[in-house]
Amino acid sequence: MKSVMIVGVGGQGSLLASKLLGRVLLDEGYDVKVSEVHGMSQRGGSVVTYVRYGEKVYSPIIDKGEADFIISFELLEAARWTEYLKTDGTIVVNNQQIDPMPVITGAMEYPKDLAAKMKAAGFNVDVVDALDIALKAGNPKASNIVLMGAFSKYLPEIPYEVWQKGIEACVPAKFLELNKKAFDMGREL
Fold first, then answer.
1. Residue 123's domain spans which residues?
2. Are 54 and 1 in contact (CB under 8 A)?
3. Which residues lie below 8 Å from residue 49, measured CB to CB, with a gap of 6+?
4. DSSP states of 38-91 as a string?
5. pLDDT over 90 (residue 41)
6. Signed CA dihedral, 152, 153, 155, 159: sign only
7. What's the rounded mean pLDDT across residues 79-98?
8. Distance between CA 127 and CA 149 in Å, rounded?
9. Residue 40, pLDDT above cutoff 60
10. Residue 132: CATH number of its domain
C-alpha cells in the first residue's frame, strides 16, 4: 500500500489534484481511498487530503510516519506535514511562499531555507517552480497540475496516457488544453 498527502493553502487546487490522482489510480486498477479535504480551504487556511492506494485499502487516513509522498503547493505547508512522511519519503513541493496570518500581521517571519532544512532532515525533496511554469503554460491557477506532472514521474508504472485520460475526466473542457500543457511542462522537469 502507498500513501500520498496533498497539502497546501485553500484555493490552490488541492481538491482537483486529489481527484485527478484518485481517478488515475482507480483507472490503473488499484483500490483507492481519498479523504475529504480538511482545513479552512475557503479562507486561505491549511488544507490536507489523504490518498491511499494498493491491492486493498481500508481507510484513507495516514498516520505520522506513514506517507510515501507529500505533494505540497507551498513551502511552509510541506514543512508543517513532514512528521507524516516515512524516513525515505519524497516531497514534491512548489517553491511558492504564501504568508500565513502571523507573518502578515508582523508577529513572525516566514521561515528561511525550508527546502534545505527538509533535505537536511533526510527527506528527498523535489522543488518545483510550479507558479512560473503555470504562467508559461498560460494561467497561474494551473500550478496544481504542473505539480501533478512533476509528481507523475514518481509513479512510472502509470502510463502517460492514463494521466491524460484523468485530466480529461477531471478538468472542464474549456481549460483542458491549458491543463494538459501544464501537466506536460511539469512532467518534463
1. 2-187
2. yes
3. 5, 6, 7, 14, 15, 17, 18, 34, 35, 36, 37, 38
4. EE-GGGT-EEEEEEEEES--------TT-EEEEEESSHHHHHHTGGGEEEEEEE
5. no
6. positive
7. 93
8. 13
9. no
10. 3.40.920.10
